[in-house]
């Protein structure tokens, strides 16, 4: 296991989130499907941790389990050392479908609403927090607009602001940019990184794109499909985050591709 240090250079004694030997199953018509098999990984505070793999590797199911929506068949999921036993405001999910914003609420009301209904803040305080996070995602001047006037990328920024307004321990993102066009998707990736630099939230992010994993993440878990197993974990010293065309970035992308798709060359549990 690699050693982890805080922003101040001090060693971190324990992870924020631990997934320990987790096997997940779900029911399909006439059968039970095993989504993951004995998956383990740790996420430290302020990590940008990526679950990467092809369709059928169980990465979205794992995210739902961390969110508390699916109980493990085997293994444990711990947050701050305590078992995850259901959904909670300490874990907030941003999904791919950005058209989930109630159209009758303004942007500010959409961001403030979950904080209000959680009982954590009153109306005035929730609106102030909404304005704070709308400023973080660059949408302050659209606070009084309605969702139908926004582009897809703007709607997803509202969804991110709404999630961060809950100030969760872990922000969970399930292929949040997959429905966007390529240019908007890259812009959203860059904006997410800039937001992380400002807020330093802890991120667990699902994608099937190798390039997106390398752009967004500082740690990447590679999952093999049917059922999902840990194939390898790589860390950000492997690539240059700021240059998708750098030799380090391309070498890391090639290595990930081999680990994911070259069955003979990949072994379970590899850590680089």
UniProtKB/TrEMBL annotation:
One of its GO terms (molecular function) is ATP hydrolysis activity. It comes from the Bacteria. Keywords: ATP-binding, Nucleotide-binding, Transport. InterPro entries: AAA+_ATPase, ABC_transporter-like_ATP-bd, ABC_transporter-like_CS, ABC_transporter_ATP-bind, P-loop_NTPase. SMART domains: AAA. Residues 19-250 form the ABC transporter domain. Belongs to the ABC transporter superfamily. PANTHER family: ABC TRANSPORTER ATP-BINDING PROTEIN, TAURINE IMPORT ATP-BINDING PROTEIN-RELATED. This is NitT/TauT family transport system ATP-binding protein. It comes from Mycoplana azooxidifex.
